[in-house]
Amino acid sequence: MPDSSPSGQVHGLLHAGLLVEDLPRARIFYESVLGLTPCPRPELPYPGAWYDLGGGQQLHLMCLPNPDAGIDRPEHGGRDRHIALGVKDMDALKSRLDAAGVTYTASKSGRAALFCRDPDANTLEFVEMRG
To answer: How far is residue 85's CA from residue 68's CA, in Å, rounded to a whole number?
Structure first.
């Protein structure tokens, strides 16, 4: 079937980039706590790490100065800029976050979702994906 969408229409998210101050600390969080596996990254003029999230989507950590450093963030991550990531087992994720001492809040909408912050205060939403 031919694609009937208008030319130039956005049709997917390829990657999200997050700024981090301390790459080794961020890698511990993303790899040891969240269980992400790094994927190849091209030579760039700053340190970073890339993670394959499946379906052609990636998460890019960029060790660069954060223009928002020191700004107060809302207590609940759902009221802050954030990225949402799908998880298969919310209880397993909660156990990993609890074991690492990472605080999180449940979605205020009643969905099977929670919000936490990485060590650099980037907000992550996790939504349980069934099926």
So the answer is: 22
pTM of the model: 0.88
Chain CA centroid to CA 96, Å: 15
Q: Dihedral sign for Cα 53, 58, 64, 66, please.
A: negative
CA distances from 15 to 41, 101, 112, 122 (A): 13, 27, 23, 15
Any idea which residue has 């060590």 for tokens?
A: 119
Is residue 34 predicted with pLDDT exceeding 80?
A: yes
Q: Which helix (H) or strand (E) is 27 found in, with range? A: helix 23-27
Structural contact between residues 123 and 73, judged by C-beta atoms closer than 8 angstroms:
yes
Take residue 18 and report the two structure tokens written for it: 């997050």
CA distance 85 to 125: 6
- From 3.10.180.10, 3.40.30.10, 3.40.50.2000, 2.40.50.140, which CATH number describes the 15-66+73-128 domain? 3.10.180.10
Specify whether the CB–CB gap between 33 and 80 falls below 8 A: no
